[in-house]
Amino acid sequence: MTVHTPLASCNVFLDLLAREAAPVEFEEPVASARAAGADPETLAQLEAAKLTALRVSAGMRRQARREAELTALFDLAGDLAGLRDLDAILEAIVRRARRLLSADIAYVSLNDDQRGETRIRMTDGSISAAFRRLRIPLGDGLGGLVAQTAMPYSTDHYLRDPQFRHHAHIDAAVAEEALVAILGVPMRVGSRVIGVLYAANRTERPFAPEQAVLLGSLAAHAALAIDNARLLAETRATVEELNAVNARLKARGAAIERAAQAHDRMTALVVKGGDAADVAAVVTEVLGGTLYVLDPAGRCLATSGDPDGTPLPEDELAAVTGAAQPRGGTTRHGDLWVTPISTPGEALGTLVLRSGAELDDADRRILERAALVTALLMLLRRSPAEAQARAQGELLDDLLDGKAAGAAGDRAALEARMRRAGLERNVPYVVLSARCASSRSRGRAAFWAASYAAAARGLAAARGEEVVLLLPGDAPGEIARRVAKELGAALAAPVTVGGAGPVRELSGVPAAHREARRCADTLLALDRMDDGADAGELGFVGLLIGAHRDARGFLEATLGPVLDYDARRGTSLVRTLETYFGCRCALSRTAERLHVHINTVHQRLHRVSRLLGEDWQEPERALEIQLALRLHRLRS
Description:
- The protein is α+β, with helices and mostly antiparallel strands and 636 residues long.
- It is 57% helix and 16% strand.
- The protein contains 22 helices and 16 strands.
- The strands form three sheets. The chain has a six-stranded antiparallel β-sheet with strand order 3-2-1-6-5-4. A five-stranded antiparallel β-sheet has the order 8-7-11-10-9, sandwiched between helices.
- The radius of gyration is 46 Å and the shape is elongated.
- It starts with 5 loop residues before the first helix and ends with a helix.
């Protein structure tokens, strides 16, 4: 007969714990003692020891399961760290989630914030194609609810759960997959939900809280891996885009460098006295192909790039010359690129480049620059034009010296000279004073100005350190900037141009010239090299240097809207501005000085911003406004 003592009972249960016996085996010692006729006290001790052993066994199993889960999470983190492709990451996540939770199926959906939905991207254990393509609006279904609220949710029976909105197409897909119990947890990056990770069973097997915690841990790893994959993909796309942009920039830089070299070489031809054949040689060396220089009648004046000198067929000649001259710019006719050689008032011929290659914008500009240089060389080779240029320079000198205001006979002779030069009495003219940064460029500047003025039906003359031009037009500032830009490009050096006018009477030319000189002097003093302007564009400085001292015009241009508003409404915006600037732009001191509330000052200055523009307090404008306020007070 076996005697059951407390110590022997403990040893039995310790042996069972040591070999990790199943819970049912812990009943055997109690049953044996009862069969052996143990007394009630002994049976009670055995029952208590059994319960203690079962609790220890359950704790050991939980610990073992937790260690297995942590090991699995560690392994998952290592696996995800080595993956870069998004689909591979999603596949690893759902496969590991299904195995850890012993679920029938695991799947993951990713949010599309623009569409307002979460879309299933990867499954493990799925049997339904419709389910794998499912799109769930945010807020609908279990997945949409989790994606929208960022909270985990578990249901024992999806189709009968009233806690979320059901949609027919979602329920149909769930039914086709035969899912019953579903657990979903959000995948978050910071506070943003990027998707949902699910585990599901096809029977009513509810998920325990510890399973939800485990799936949440998987979702946390998954979210970081998915976000890293997305960032890596975006980085790769950005790098590829930057490489493409860099390649385009390199190509663009090479084209610009090629165009600059061609421009410099063609400019040198003008200085050296080259001809059209020299220009054609530069073009074909840079662009390739064969270049034909044609006169207005279509006759070939020069050819470059064609070893046997094959002429253009007559039908092609007629087509390209007829199409190019009236339109200007570069046009394409098959493998021919056509650019007219012309001045504003005359067609001098055509450049025709035969090339099978595509010309980009930079190449077309090379061809157009060649046409311009060719036109200039053609004009320079005309001896009558050179004589006319000298005559025009002498005529402008007489106008600048005020000889038009002499006796009636002198004025009549001067007007006859103007008519021979192509000038008209009733057309407004502007006077320009051009200054070159380099004294060595002044001769070339005078040469360029004479050609430019002849093409524009105006006059040009070199006078000491300046080149003076009299050109038709009524916008002296705009014309001054254009001449500064084009003359600077021709000389490859900064050129400063002051403008004045327009003038309609011969007697006004000397005064306009003096004002143009003052504008040029002012631009140089302000270090505005390579620029052009007239007195009206120089703000208060123009008021000081202008010939007419147009104080009213300066006041209207600077402060007119505020003055008009005060006059119409009886307000005190001008006084508020004077006080505001007098108080060094301090709102509280301005309000005290005006005896008004600070909000009233805010409202008035807001109205000033509406009238003068938001930049009225910028230093340059603020200075002009203060000068206008002082001028207004003096005039009042």
